[in-house]
Amino acid sequence: MKNFTTNRIIHGDATAELAKLPDNSIDLIITDPPYLVGYRDRDGRSIANDRNPDAVLPAIEHMGRILRDGSYMVLFCGWVAIDQFSKAWTDAGLRTVGQIFWQKSYASRTWHTECRHESAWLLAKGRPAKPEAPVSDVREWVYSGNRFHPTEKAVDILTPLIRAYSKQGDTVLDPFSGSGSTSVAAALTGRNSIGIELEDRYCTYARTRLAGVSRYRDRKAAA
């Protein structure tokens, strides 16, 4: 039973805040956690806990608990720590049902290759109903500009996922909210949302963005 407030960005640690949510209360999780690689962008910006699995992986156990049976989770994840992430989601009772790739028009240099894609794992709890319009597993990347966050995902990346794997009125959760793109995409597609963000500056950005799109949605509904 859902007995919590939605359409908000919580400032706090993901694991601690997820522990407060009831079992089987979330309809869809979309999240882009720290990849555990010590990432820095071109401007030198970094991400909290990006080399600390003990601050990231325990949150996945709670995600499995609070996700409603028969629902999906989309987890953006690089390959470097995939063994740790996959063990965490398997232990949480989630199973892999697909992988989605976004092809980029530019490359991020790594030690051995030039990386021209982003990827996410499509996970399921139980046996979800087949989506009416599943997304393609190879898609075109939309660059966000990373204005608000060093690994910001464009809203246009997230809205097709939300439409495919949830229904209007559902609650979408992002425990590593960053600049709030998931919450914005949820609002634009008629879903409720909860975001959790550890870093104060990004939490502030996310709240501002969500408030702006909520006002726009309310004006449009009243017109």
Automatic annotation (TrEMBL):
Residues in DNA methylase N-4/N-6 domain copies: 26-206
Signal peptide feature range: none
GO biological process: methylation
Keywords: Methyltransferase, Transferase
Domain of life: Bacteria
Recorded coiled-coil stretches: none
Catalysed reaction equations from the record: a 2'-deoxyadenosine in DNA + S-adenosyl-L-methionine = an N(6)-methyl-2'-deoxyadenosine in DNA + S-adenosyl-L-homocysteine + H(+)
InterPro entries registered for this protein in UniProt: DNA_methylase_N4/N6, DNA_methylase_N6_adenine_CS, RM_Methyltransferase, SAM-dependent_MTases_sf
GO-annotated cellular components: cytoplasm
Protein family membership: Belongs to the N(4)/N(6)-methyltransferase family.
Name of this chain's protein: Methyltransferase
Species for this entry: Edaphosphingomonas laterariae
